[in-house]
Amino acid sequence: MSDEMETNDGQRFDRLPATAEEREVAGRATREEIIDWWKERFGVAPETFDGYSFWEKGKGKIWILRGDLDSPVHIEALGMTFLRTRQRHWKPTTNAAQRFGGLASKNVIGLDDEQASRFVRGKDHELDWGGDWGYLIVSHEIAGGREPLGVGLYLHGELQSLVPKGRRRDL
Q1: Which residues does the UniProt record annotate as the domain DUF7122 (predicted)?
Q2: pLDDT of residue 3
Q3: Within a domain: residue 2?
Q4: pLDDT at 8
Q5: 12: how many CB neighbours lie within 10 A of its CB?
Q6: Which of 109, 121, 112, 114 is nearest to 161 (CA)?
Q7: Domain edge (last residue) among 39, 67, 95
Q8: What count of other Cβ atoms lies within 10 Å of the Cβ of residue 6?
């Protein structure tokens, strides 16, 4: 690797480096950092992501793909949006929460029927939560099992719904 770092190209997908030692673009997250973050923040086992590759397109927009490709890739979409990095606090996407949130053992908040209905409509809640502040996996019990609804932001006694406008539902 040269002394000068490459720059990010927002018009293509670049596979994330496995570790910081392999990083060629300043500020780019690594596979190791992402897997560690999901383990520390949500208790998702690292082996969950075996067989997946991680990609960045744009500044901090991370995508996940089952399998792998040669890098870089010049296409519009690849796999599933997964995580937003390059900001103060990393934010999982609704897609990622719904796909992997059922495996989370930490920072998961369960809502009752009325709260879950409000959450998927995009409404915020005042509620007590004894866990960490920040981004949470929001879940609801359905048919005896916990199902992730999406991502919420918990601050100062309020759970903010981060369900994207196009995915909100009136249940």
Answers
A1: 1-79
A2: 43
A3: no
A4: 67
A5: 16
A6: 121
A7: 95
A8: 13
Quick one: 122 and 161 in the same domain?
yes
Q: How many domains does the chain have?
A: 2
Candidates 146, 145, 106, 138; CA nearest to 122 is: 138
Q: Which domain holds residue 56?
A: 14-95
Shared domain check, 85 and 121: no
pLDDT of res. 1:
43
The overall average pLDDT reported for the chain is 90
Tokens of residue 79, six digits: 């796999």
Tell me, what CATH number does 136's domain have?
2.30.130.60
pTM over 0.85: yes
What does the pLDDT look like over 124-162, one tens digit per residue? 999 999 889 999 999 999 888 899 999 999 999 999 999
CB 32 within 8 Å of CB 19? yes
CB 98 within 8 A of CB 150: yes
